[in-house]
Amino acid sequence: MRIFLTGATGFIGSALVPQLLEAGHQIIGMTRSDAGAHALTEAGVEVHRGTLEDTDSLRRGAEKADAVIHLAFDHDFSNFVENCEKDKRAIAALGSALAGSDRPLLVTSGTGVGSPGPGQLATEDVFNTSHPNPRIGSEIASNELLDAGINVSVVRLPQVHNPYKQGLVRPLIDVAREKGVCAYVGDGQNRWPAGHLSDVARLYRLAIEKAERGARYHAVGEEGITAREITEALGRGMKLPVISITPEEAQAHFGWMAMFTALDMPASSAQTQARLGWTPTGPTLIADLNEGRFMQEAP
After folding, report:
1. Nearest-5° angle of CA 116, CA 121, CA 124?
2. Between the CA of residue 17 and those of 45, 124, 271, what are the distances in Å?
3. Residue 70 forms beta bridges with which residues?
4. Which residues contact 79 (CB under 8 A, 6 or more apart)?
5. 72 sits in which H/E element
6. Coil, helix or strand for 109?
7. Is residue 158 pLDDT above 70, yes or no?
8. What letter would DSSP give residue 283?
9. Distance (Å, whole) CA 236 – CA 93
10. Using alpha carbons only, how large is the chain's radius of gyration in Å?
11. 193 in Cβ contact with 223 (< 8 Å)
């Protein structure tokens, strides 16, 4: 297939590009920068200049493709709500370019919206429309396209990691560096799901190849790692003390990250594994953190 890929030079996109090329697909990769365009050209990818804000550029890219994978997202979490709204507009624009065809669109969401309630295991067959995470807007937008006859499916992400980056663990590292301690909230038994970068990239490839209308997939290798385990791994790597703080202290300590630090959000990928024949094989989140390379720049 000829696949339009937003976020082609991002964390997941950079791992997905070689997977798609090796499988024989052609890629139109979106980038906003000269450096990104150079990297894509070197990888053998057709460059499409565009941004999430420029919905016309998104439509033009999708019009040229047999399939679309939407990975791009503005990860400025201090402006998270508006960035989720921007993602809704991007999804609507991509879908409009596919109207009247069966060309698939694969969008990205978070595992949390598959949880029926706080602390309950998220599964692929659940769509919690009352979930407080603003990222739910991405799935609302995709459902609207689905109702309009567009072939849409969704990959829900946990904390995606390799030895250098670990999703929302990265801001925790920044806070620990600033405060001089690694902290968790309460007893630290709240859980975050995780998936290794290599497994997540493979899942996106399998999902776009299957192109199953309305499907939801969980890119989960581990159902839940406790906040205390994560914090203790950071403490070992940064050689900083590990402490517990109260929920009342979380906002002052973590800033905008406080909304995430105490969330208990385990997630399953059992249905995904059965439907796609996908088996996670990458290292665990703690194994990647234990390498201690999260303080270094990725090569």
Report:
1. 75
2. 8, 25, 25
3. 6
4. none
5. none
6. strand
7. yes
8. P
9. 45
10. 19
11. yes
Q: For residues 105 and 94, what is the distance between their CA atoms, to the nearest angstrom? A: 8
Q: What is the dihedral angle through the alpha carbons of 48, 54, 57, 62, rounded to the nearest 10 degrees?
A: 100
Q: Which range among 73-87, 148-162, 221-235 shows the weakest confidence by mean pLDDT? A: 73-87
Q: What's the CA dihedral at 228, 232, 233, 235 to 10 degrees? A: 140
- How far apart CA 206 and CA 218 sit, in angstroms, is 12
Question: Using CA atoms, how far apart are residues 108 and 6, in angstroms rounded to an integer?
Answer: 11
What is the average pLDDT value for the chain, to the nearest integer?
95
Q: Please report, as a single letter, which amino acid is at residue 14.
A: S
Q: Is 166 within 8 Å of 289 (Cβ atoms)? A: yes
User: Residue 274 — very low, low, confident or very high, per pLDDT cuts 50/70/90?
Assistant: very high
- Which residue, 81, 66, 92, 67, is CA-closest to 145? 92
- The pLDDT of 95-107, averaged and rounded, is 97
Contact call for residues 29 and 93 (beta carbons, < 8 A): no
Mean pLDDT of 140-169: 96
pLDDT higher for 134 or 102? Answer: 102
Rounded CA-CA distance 258/108 in Å is 23
